[in-house]
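Step 1: inspect the first sequence and its tokens.
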Amino acid sequence: MAILSRLGAVRSYFPATLLARTQVAATLAGWLGPWSDEQAAARGVLRQHWRLGEIDVTVYRPDRRQPLGHVFVCPGLHFAGANEPKMDRFLRALAAAGVQTTCAMPPGFRSLRLVASDLETTRRAFEWAVARSAGRIGVMSISFGSRFALELASDPRCGGLLCFGGYASWQAAMRFAVGLGPEVGERDPLNRPVVFGQVAEHFGLDPDDVRTLRSAWLRYCIRTWGREPLKRQGRHVPVARSEAETLPSHLLPLFLEGCAVDPACGAGVSASTAPTSLAAAIDLAAPAHQWLDPRASAARVTCPTWLVHGVDDDVIPVSQVDALAQLLPNAQTLQVVRTGLYGHTAGARPTLPSLAAELRGFVKVLQGFASIAAG
């Protein structure tokens, strides 16, 4: 009788789980597919904000119905966190699909900084989310949020991990972003100040000058991010020059270099007058940035894992997805998906020859979302 009872429990569990996953995947397909209206946002979603000490936490959940699952989201490095329009739309889509979603923005992100202490603050937010979850919780990350997600995914209460656009080597990712690495591909010129700001104290400047430059680069990013046309044909140059007018003259060359602007002709990149070059500053920053190395955390991950990366990612190169997969030998299952549907900050429509392959990849991505969300 005990065996029959257990078999009955198994039969009742799987249909419910399969139904929940199917519902999540089907709803997300409508919101995230290449056919979706990127200007529309899901309705029937309750959005609430909390401040847990220094960390901002935003929770999205389906209104007037019980969630089918729970996902903790580690966002990419952005000063707006869940308030960034594309991130807000994505989180609303998850909630419309029946998934309660907790997005935690590390304090350093407000100033576009990756800070070691934010690992612990994110962990506290995760504990807060777990305490409000009926079961195990999925973990998802975007871009540099993968470092935080890998730390959390080793927790036995994590039911699955999905990393979108993550990295295996922070040095390789930063070098790619500023055109120093061997990787080929388009770079996002608007992202360049983040790397300069992250290693600013290693340029050999006065601490006051470092703070001044970081504040100026942050203001520049606030003015340019999310404005796709500024990525092309040097259209970001007037914004950089406008911001440069607020700076003392001795900081102008380095500030403009950080914005991919040549002080002489207004385009391209010139050498600055800083005592230390950018390449050397990245190397000098290595000891203080050891915490960004994901290898130890990745090796502890044992849950089902999905790694998704845009083939045209212009911030973290797609080669990082294979390197990251190598760091996950103990994952229960590992799916790697390269997609042409999504870059780092924008979607794309597939060409006719690639349509079938892209749709197969899209189905795998939906399966990943549904699995980490609904168990």
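Step 2: inspect the second sequence and its tokens, then contrast the two.
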Amino acid sequence: MRRLNKNFWIDSTIGTIIIFTFMGIALWFFTYFDFLNPVEHTLTDFETTDLVFSQLRDDPVPDTNIIIINTSSLPKGAIAEQIKIINQYGPRLIALNLDLNWDEDNLGTMALMQALLEIDQLLIGGRLKVSDGNYEYFVPAVLQDLPNASYAYQDFMLDDRIHEEFHVLREFSPNPSNISQKNILPFGLKIASYYDEGLLNRFLNRKNDKEIINYRGNALGASESFGYMFMALDVDDVFEENFIPEIINDKIIIFGFLGDQYGPAYESKFFTPLNEQYVGRSNPDMYESVIHANIAAMIINEDYIERLPQWMSVLLGVALCFLTTMLFGYVYRVVPRWYDATTKLIALIQVALLLFVIILVFNWYNLRLDLTLGIIAALFASDTLEFYHSVIKNVLNKEARQEIVGSKGIINSSDKN
């Protein structure tokens, strides 16, 4: 019995190694062959936690700290008029999330520059461009070195995949090391610092290379159906002053593109986990300015999503795989004739339970568990272990098996049958 128990542990260890070997081969196969890229992206671009964002969370409580102004496709002169109207009501900050053509309309440029210089606290968003392996911050020359302005980059992830079709924006880079100008921060983070400077230091002390965006809702007036969190003023609302001064006074104001009259548009728009069509997404669902507002609100409220360290996720994955291997090995020894049906049913139940735990923990504790290794191992385990027990062990002769596992009492598969 003691030798049989020893063999059982050895078989479980070898089985775990073989499962991870097959998983590695499958990963290489999907990575190496380009024609499988659409399948790979479909599988990797969906996360179980998307269900929490899109299906399980209650509608958000409106955030009154941040107001978004739709500039639509207005010329620079009209945007200048919008800014003058809003600025007279004493906003805490005016943040420009705009990509304008500064080479045309000189009169409009002059009007907009004059309006910008009248602002007390101004934040200008720029873009990052690749230069010699690093990122260089770029802002049009006319906007550089304004005495009342600070600067931030509007990009979310320093990753080429962000420009791929159907990619879901879940994270942003808070303080990447490969930006030449070290004092340039993300747009949403810089916005939050105007609310409370201490928030900036506490956030950066988290020292995460990537932060999960804790999405809460869209801007009022957006065409998507999920909950609204931020007040937004359309073009006519601003020009006709169809608002009360209190919603502007001492508030953070973001000027950005929200479509033409809140109409459907794909410019400056991204897929997010809030999209209720979380499989087979067709249309992006959130404008860039609203995503920045979600990031700023997350930091202002210090409502972060935590994640397990990578080493702990790997350790959990290996442990789950080993436990699965032990369970399936026991089934193979006890009821070999029912091995296939039994282990596949167990694998389905195990995967369902793990997904349920991921959703539950994320929804209750804002903690993202990465149990991907354990889930994939459960799906691979049944056939892989059957191959190990029925083929690999039988290919080796008795003496070789004794040399590898030190076993004299292993029950051959033929004896079981």
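Step 3: confirm your contrast with the notes below.
The first helix runs from residue 2 to 32. Residues 161-165, 407-417 have pLDDT under 50 and may be disordered.
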